[in-house]
Amino acid sequence: MTARIIDGKAIAAELRTRVADEVARVKRDHELTPGLAVVLVGNDPASEVYVRSKHTQTQAAGMASFEHKLPADVSQDDLLALIARLNRDPLVHGILVQLPLPKSLHTETIINAIDPAKDVDGLHPNNAGRLAGGLAALSPCTPLGCIILTKSVHPSIEGMNAIVVGRSNLVGRPLVQLLLNENATVTIAHSRSRDLPKLVAQADLVYAAVGRPEMVRGDWLKPGATVIDVGINRIPVPGGKPKLVGDVAFQEALNVAGAITPVPGGVGQMTVACLLVNTLRAACAIQGLPAPAA
Ligand SMILES: Nc1nc2c(c(=O)[nH]1)N[C@@H](CN(C=O)c1ccc(C(=O)N[C@@H](CCC(=O)O)C(=O)O)cc1)CN2
Q: Which of 11, 24, 32, 78 matches a 20 to 30 Å C-alpha distance to 218?
């Protein structure tokens, strides 16, 4: 069996089109232009690429994009002052601080300073707590993307066995909550779980978000399982450009899985598209408008 490849690029493009249509509608009917402010501290090359892509895609969707680039040695107080300004700015409906931050800054304090209504990363404890309680919340973008990709294969995942390998605040933990909201049966595992291959073998849906190149092997998988690979690992290639691989051994998994996301071209593509969805949702909620269709 060769697994079906889940085309994250195409699914993200469709989502961006739906967001752009909804943005045009709220502009026309309500004179509302959703605005996203992205804060980048320092000059990590991968973060610079992601922030550029957020800027381009935000503008392409018809929204306002505000970029704030700060030096790596910015003080915590100056960064907090910028966030306070963005919290008050009526043109800004979404605020995202690109992660990781330099070690000199306290990530939790920075995230907690963002107005939860503008927290389009879904990382503020208000949003994380609401999501955990099964309430309406802004949810982190990558897990939202994982759910959309899963539903492109299984429109309902009710009762399916899912395993999430990884317990980060950005992906693993919120993904577990989103899966529970879809009535999946969820196991959360991590690098210290005992007998990971045995746990993975029981799952119909496998989410690999552990940050270890090709850790999940093909022979761990239940035949026909749907595999969503969240990993983005750069592997050095002697004399060449680093190679991008996921947390799943893709070639091995192809022969066992029913469907699988590639890296690149899978989950990563959904992250920015879902950020646009969250920004549109935040803008509508702040204006007191009904939740948009996208
Ligand atoms: N505040 C946040 N910081 C970070 C997040 C986040 O959701 N919020 N996620 C990641 C980085 N990220 C967006 O910020 C991101 C990662 C990957 C992609 C993507 O399109 N990946 C491509 C490959 C691109 C490459 O060559 O690196 C793919 O998988 O096809 C977009 C956004 C950490 N920080």
A: 11
Q: Is the CB of 226 under 6 A from ligand 1?
A: no
pLDDT tens per residue across span 200-235: 999 999 999 999 999 999 999 999 999 999 999 999
Model pLDDT for residues 74-115, shown as the tens digit of each residue: 999 999 999 999 999 999 999 999 999 999 999 999 999 999
Burial category of 146 from C-beta neighbours within 10 Å (exposed 0-12, middle 13-18, buried 19 and up): buried
In angstroms, rounded to a whole number, what is the distance separating the alpha carbons of residues 224 and 209?
Answer: 20
Residue 34 CA: distances (Å) to CA of 22, 31, 84, 96, 104: 11, 10, 19, 14, 32
Query: What CATH number labels 141-269?
Result: 3.40.50.720
Taking the centre of ligand 1 as the mean of its atom positions, its distance from the CA of residue 98, in whole angstroms, is 10
Give the mutation target among 56, 232, 250 for probing the ligand 1 site: most ligand atoms within 8 A of CB: 232
What is the C-alpha to C-alpha distance for residues 266 and 95, in angstroms, rounded to an integer?
25
| Residue 192 token pair | 């210290």
Ligand 1 within 6 A of CB of 142: yes
16 known ligand binder = no
Instruction: Identify the DSSP state of 265.
Output: S
Residue 134 phi/psi, 5° resolution? 75, 20
**Topology adopted by domain 31-116:** Rossmann fold (3.40.50)
Predicted ipTM beyond 0.90: yes
- The CA 29 to ligand 1 mean position distance, Å, reads 33
> How far is the C-alpha of 131 from the C-alpha of 138, rounded, in Å?
8
**Extents of the domains making up the chain:** 31-116, 141-269
Q: Which atom of ligand 1 is nearest to the CA of 275?
A: 7
